[in-house]
Amino acid sequence: GHRGVDLAAVVGAEVSAPADGVVAFRGTVVDRPLLTIEHTGGLVTTLEPVRSTLVAGDVVTAGQALGVLDIGGHTAAGSLHLGVRLDGDYINPLLLFDDVPRAVLLPCCEAR
Question: Which of 11, 22, 24, 51 could form a disulfide with 70 if both were Cys (CB 3.0 to 4.6 A apart)?
């Protein structure tokens, strides 16, 4: 499944660390380069497709350049996929970025 969000970006754009952490994995899975960072509090972030020279064990700080947006995987060219797990379970990454407005359900159909 597609767990996370796809954010508009430009292929070749610099991708920055969302928070302090340690690189847990950098490599290619199937056809996409990805980078996984472990953070404190049980959070794990995966960014893809990201081409990077970092290696597992490298310490990163919030805002630090991690690499550049590449192409591949299930995201459209020009999209950065951001997935976040908390204690092993996927969560909505947008909950970690400021206030997320509550979803409002709209009527789907006209009464006939």
Answer: 51
